[in-house]
């Protein structure tokens, strides 16, 4: 069964937190209890020493055993679960806890055994007796026998402390679990929300609504990248769609004009409104030529834009090819009184001569087409490292910033009315770009409206 990202993230967080909290609780409980047990054993040893010191002191003060002091020490010891017997140097019992109050001793022992057995089911209490000598002036003056349940035992205070400690641990565990759960849920929401946004937008885009964008930025790098990619995808699909519509509109428009003219001319001739004079027939013939040119352009486009454009490479002097092209344009140059300057350079290029020729023809032809009378066109050939560069710069109409990114697109024409006069179908630059790219080169354009345009092609010397 498929789970939502949010559910999956939340469950993972809950699972990981639970494991962490349980593990931390078990480990801290184990280590704290171990430490506490060691502390209790040391404490027991310390208490034994206090008893021994107290009994020693009572002897050294009076140089004989004081039964009252020993008794008070012994009674206090019973309360702590310790049962003492004090004997003098000859071995005679001075004071014995069990002899003093056997029932109290039994009561304390039973209480201690039952609490320890409840707390530690494996606890096997063994009644142990340790002997300590009573020394005065380096002379043994008696023995204290200290009896207790070993290896360790907890008195009521110890148990209370241990219980409080466990309660604190459990509370801290529960509190951390709750905090981790809340943080986990918030994190899952924070992670899944932008992804859900991306999904929504991607779905809208796939349904054809290319205007959809994700506005909210994410501070998670990967999600931010994903968001940007979806936005870019939407943008480029939007542009493609716009271009496709424009392309269909342009092609149908291009076809419609000559077809409509032809239709009306033919109808007029059939109905006898017009005489089939040579002029009329020439008019019809021109429209047919226009149609033919358009179909030819479409074919050319298909040829140059095909992925496996075959290049027939040879070595040739690029300067000479350009000079020849300029020479062929002489008629246009003279008619428009354009000053064309060519800056030559001795460069031998290894490329498809005919196709490179086509590129230069397209660029110079455009420069001449879109430059007014008495304008200036400069063609410059130069070398830049391992690349050959050709710049075609004119002082013509220029291209607006809005149109500049699209000039290499199929059938894109900056200004329809402008092109009506110049006759272009908007495929010259598309072909130019395809040829340059087939040679592993690049083409760039810079333009300022009403000031001029510069196209620069960059071709590797040995492409
Ligand atoms: P066309 O055959 O219409 O000239 P192109 O693909 O060669 O088609 O050019 C696309 C568009 O770019 C043209 O319609 C024109 O408006 C613009 N253009 C190309 N070169 C120039 C230039 N040198 N100066 C101004 N506009 C240009």
Automatic annotation (TrEMBL):
InterPro entries assigned to the protein according to its UniProt record, in alphabetical order: HAMP_dom, HATPase_dom, His_kinase_dom, HisK_dim/P_dom, HssS/ArlS-like
Location(s) in or outside the cell: Cell membrane
Catalytic activity: ATP + protein L-histidine = ADP + protein N-phospho-L-histidine
Protein name, per record: histidine kinase
Membrane topology: Multi-pass membrane protein
PROSITE patterns referenced in this protein's UniProt entry, alphabetically: HAMP, HIS_KIN
EC annotation from Swiss-Prot or TrEMBL: 2.7.13.3
Superkingdom of source: Bacteria
Lineage start: Bacteria, Bacillati, Bacillota, Clostridia, Eubacteriales
Organism: Clostridium frigoris
Domain named HAMP: residues: 189-242
Alphabetical UniProt keywords: ATP-binding, Cell membrane, Kinase, Membrane, Nucleotide-binding, Phosphoprotein, Transferase, Transmembrane, Transmembrane helix, Two-component regulatory system
